[in-house]
Amino acid sequence: MYLDIFSFFAQANALFFLQVFCSLFLAILFLQSGFNKVFRWDENWSWLSDHFKDSYLEKPTTPLLVIITIVEVGAGVFSAVGVVALFLGTTKWAYLGAVLATINITMLFFGQRIVKEYEGAADLVAYFIVCVISVYILGGL
Q1: Mean per-residue pLDDT over the chain, rounded
Q2: What percentage of residues in the chain have a pLDDT greater than 90?
Q3: Helix intervals (H) in the chain
Q4: CA distances (Å), 77 to each of 48, 49, 56, 57, 137, in order?
Q5: Could you say which DSSP state residue 11 is in?
Q6: Largest CB tally within 10 Å, which of 39, 49, 64, 80?
C-alpha cells in the first residue's frame, strides 16, 4: 500500500486543509504574541501604560493586560492542540482556539479605538477576518 498523494490533496479534503492551516496560523500568531507578553511583561506593561495614558483604561492597565495575555495564550494553545486534534477527527479544540482568538482581537481592537489609534485598529482587521473565518469553518456551519 502507498500514499496516494493526489487523493490526499483532492478537493474533498479542502475543508480539512482550511481548518488545519487556519488553526496553525492562529497557533503561531497567538503563541508568539502571548509568550512575548509573558516573557517581556515589564516592557509590554510600560508600553500599554503610556498608550492608555489619559484614557479611562489607564488605571486598569495591569488587570486588562493579564486578561489579554491569558486569552491570547489560551487561543494559541487551543489552536495548537486543535491542529493535532484535527488529524484525530475532532474540531472542538481548534474551534475553541478560534473563538478565543476572535475575542482577543476584539478586545485589542476596542483598546485601539478607545485611544484613537485608528491605524493600529485598522491593522487588526485582517487578523479579525482570519479569526471569524476560522470560527466559521471549524464550527461546522
Answers
A1: 90
A2: 68
A3: 5-8, 14-39, 41-51, 61-87, 92-114, 118-138
A4: 24, 27, 31, 27, 19
A5: G
A6: 80
